[in-house]
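Structure representation:
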Amino acid sequence: MKPDGGVSMTFWKAMLPIGYLAIALIYTLRFLGGDPHIPILSAAVVGALVAVLSGYKWVDIQEGIVATIKMSMGAILILMIIGMVIGTWILAGIVPTMIYYGLQLIAPGIFLVATALICAIVSVATGSSWTTAGTVGIALIGVGEGFGIRLPMVAGAIISGAYFGDKMSPLSDTTNLAPAMAGAKLFDHIRHMVFTTGPSLLIALVLYAILGLRYRQSNLDLEGIRLILDGIESHFTVSVWLLLPPLLVIVMVIRRIPAIPGLIGGTVLGGLFAAVFQGSGLTEIVRAAHYGFVSNSGLESVDSLLTRGGLDSMMWTVSLILCAMCLAGVLESTGMLNAIAGRIVRLARNNGTLVTTTILTSIGTNLVAGDQYLSIVVPGRIFKKIYDDRGLKPKNLSRVLEDGGTLSSPLIPWNTCGAFMYTTLGVYPFAYLPFAFMNLINPLVSIFYGFTGITMEKFSDAELRARQAEHKETTDRSTDTRV
């Protein structure tokens, strides 16, 4: 979109709302003890004001905001439904059963490693980091708390495993979006990601194993765990049959049933199992789905584990996503993101700096726009021609887009992914960030490959000639059509 009159968007104009956002966030979060909603929304106002003074019409900016919010509506619906899933699954005894067996089957010393691996397997199978966190993730948080392991460590292991699968699964939306933006083939993209994602996960597992050494059996509070087990047994019917709903949800997603119907099915199953196994009435089921489950066992350790979930519990996150999308809509529709990214592109003098600037642009888009998809789409549009001009195959760009965009999204509190993980796991993103080893290491591995040239595949001379001929043919057809 371009303004009908006035001055076109420049880098320094685009930086005004960004600079304001940084100052407003720091002041509000650090000194006022507030939430990020108002700083983000007010930054959108500043951006819109700059755009209007530059010649953009408000009606066009508003259309951009609405279009961006529309992009996030699928995520918002999933978020709300997962709140209902959590509430009904706790009422049904599904989550308590998972915690109960987890405390008995997983040794504390290997818990962080097991957590990352379990979440990686589930996420590869489902293609969804959100579904993984909202099902096995909340149970693993409970198990970790029972073991006395610091929750930021547990959440970091969950995030690492969940985003390994989100990145590598052919069922994942970002795994399909990145090659689409770069012009690569899906399975070429996935195979190429193995070179950065595989070593990153292995290093992360080693670090989790080292962290787990401090939680060996000799240091375990057995009395505290026994109190949790007794508290669960006294207030819930525990049965292996209660593991069936999460397995069915995973199977539904694997079989390509869309996420929203699949999760609604999970909510219905939660209600049915609550009635059958726990004797819950319709009123209790509806209240758990809407307001969440409130545990009144009298044991603080059990009540803190199980008082959560419900549609209402997700409203803080929904409002944060809407505020972030307002800002993203202003920045995207007025060309501010492109103006900023265009300045960054100038730094890409060789393949190493090209990869680095691509990753930084993806992370910056996540920081500013607050949306995982934009962090792939915007850099993908900007850098595609540069990678082509340097003879780099499209799968290089698609891999780097995921290394930067997909993996940084859950580490930012006002990003849709970070907000979701905070609401679901109950751990603030800045708290688990130091322990999300997979997400921190992967971009560094990608940058290392960029500077060393490892796995940075280029077109052969024959392939370049074929691409040039194909491009010329496409251009000729387009010209003939216009004539």
